[in-house]
Amino acid sequence: MAVTKLTRSPRRAQLHPTAASSGIALGRLPVYENLHALNRDFEQVLADLARLQELGVFRRDRFTIFRLIVQETRAWANMELADLPHMREQDNQAWFGRLHRRWEKT
What are the Cα distances from residue 48, in Å, to 41, 58, 69, 76? Predict the structure, then answer.
């Protein structure tokens, strides 16, 4: 008698469904993870600047201008990079909304 062994799909496939399995190209999780990492790293730079300021490394207003440059760069990067996930989310909402309406009709 044959023994059937239950197998699971790889963890990566569970976390990142393919376009064929979901009906739509997702790939959202890596984008959000990287946006989070980028912002975490900007926070680290700001914390490092603050520590250097406490050590008296900066002359006069240099700390303030460096801090403002980092914050401006982060805001700019977030603004530019948030467009892609926003467009994907809009596409996904439309796709799943259509599926939902079809399901309700049946």
Answer: 10, 12, 14, 21
